[in-house]
Amino acid sequence: MAAKYVQKVIPSVTTTRLQKLTLSELRKEALRLYEEYCTNKICQNKHIGIPIQLKNSGGRKTARGEAIYSKKVAIIKCLPCLLENATYNNFGKPKEKDPNSLIGYYNFKAYVLVDGKKECVRLSVKARIDGSFYYNVEVNKAK
Questions:
Q1: Which of 84, 82, 77, 11 lies closest to 51 in space, CA to CA?
Q2: pTM of the prediction?
Q3: Under a CB-based contact definition with an 8 Å cutoff, are residues 61 and 30 in contact?
């Protein structure tokens, strides 16, 4: 039986400054943080060993299309660390609307200290037929 993987690194972020921003300002800050900390990085997940690519355009979906809130924006700063240290949870099949080049989604969980409180974060990574893995910029606090 394999030993249980434990996230050894738990990053810490604060939301104090972000809580004062409007929704539009939060979206701009999310894109800025993604470009600064995540653009064109490859994170080797320590639990199952897959190389997760953070694309140049990856932050746009978070900044423009998805629900946005101060905790989520703050977490962007430490996405590479979270993806490297996250624990594999399960594999999800592709949705009907997904392209044929997508095999499915590797789902992970990780922990981060947000304003001193330990939060569980769900991370999803797209697995493609060509063998590449892309983070799909879906960070949601698990209840």
A1: 84
A2: 0.85
A3: no
